[in-house]
Amino acid sequence: MNRGLALLTPAIPAMVVVGFFVWFANWIPQTHWDPPKKLDLGTQMTPADLAQAGATIVRERGCMACHTLEPGRGVQGGGRGPNLDGVAERRAQGVPGGPGTLVDYLAQSLYEPGAHLVEGYMNIMPAATAAPAKLGYNEIVAVVDYLQSLGGTPSVSIGDLPQPAQAGTAAVQATPAPVTAAGGAELLTALGCFACHSEKPGETVLGPALDGEDLRQIAAQRGLTLEAYLLEAIVDPGAFQRPDYPAGVMPADYGTTLSAAQLKAVVDYLARRDDS
């Protein structure tokens, strides 16, 4: 009996410490993150109904990470992208040298955002059909109706707009699975990752820079190897949200849309980059 107590006594402090941390971990409020769900958008919906859905899409797909809604400010708001408030009134006649109607202008702005840049803004917006928004056709229509409502009246029904070109998406899907770090760089380009991430250390576009030293520090803070952290950030971006960057913008489906070989190539490229 005494021998058992003697063996148990040194372990008591450790058990108390472990018990405290277990209690503390469960006391901390737990959070749960789900990627935005696609809305059920059908041909029976009126333009007004679609506009309401479009407002949700714009909010949930990260558009407001760059754009703003600032009444009375005109096109020059305080965001990285133009102020959307009043866009229907400003672009009622389209743009000189480009689409001559509001609807055509809005559709082109979503399909080909670099075709007509607003003065004072950089060409950083990816096509709305590409990452990170990855909008389908019906969602594009809903967003156009929503933008029409910002100073005008929604008028577009599903089927009125041209379908988006599938070349960009098809090119990514048709690309043979890369098996080298160089292939990972090509895949990052094809997926449009550099529209949000810079390869220059310390330079912020929308998401964190792909800075090797910074990534290693975050991985160490997470208690992960660099490769494990990179894989987590790609396939489950909601697992760890850096507070100084907008949430919910990074696509959450790369774990299912990329093959294991493609994921490995991207991780290898990012982990072995020379930032000097």
Describe this structure in words.
With 276 residues, this protein is mostly helical. 44% of the residues lie in helices and 0% in strands. Helix 3 (47-60) crosses helix 6 and helix 5 crosses helix 6 (137-149). It is elongated, with a radius of gyration of 24 Å. Residues 27-33 and 167-179 have low confidence and may be disordered.
Topology:
Blueprint: H1 2-8, H2 11-27, H3 47-60, H4 87-90, H5 102-111, H6 137-149, H7 167-174, H8 181-190, H9 212-222, H10 226-235, H11 254-257, H12 260-272
Helix pairs in contact: 3-6, 5-6, 8-12, 9-10, 10-12
Keywords:
0% strand, 276 residues, elongated, mainly alpha
Number of strands: 0
Element order: H for helix, E for strand: HHHHHHHHHHHH
The parts where pLDDT drops under 50 for at least 5 residues are 27-33, 167-179
Oligomer type = single chain
User: N-to-C terminal Cα separation, in Å?
Assistant: 64 Å
For the CA atoms, what is the radius of gyration? 24 Å
| Beta-strand proportion | under 5%
Judged by helices, strands and strand pairing, the structural class is mainly alpha
Mean pLDDT: 80
Helix content: 40-55%
Tally of alpha and pi helices: 12
Largest sheet geometry: none
Task: Give a quick rundown of the structure.
The protein is mostly helical. The chain has helices at residues 2-8, 11-27, 47-60, 87-90, 102-111, 137-149, 167-174, 181-190, 212-222, 226-235, 254-257, 260-272.
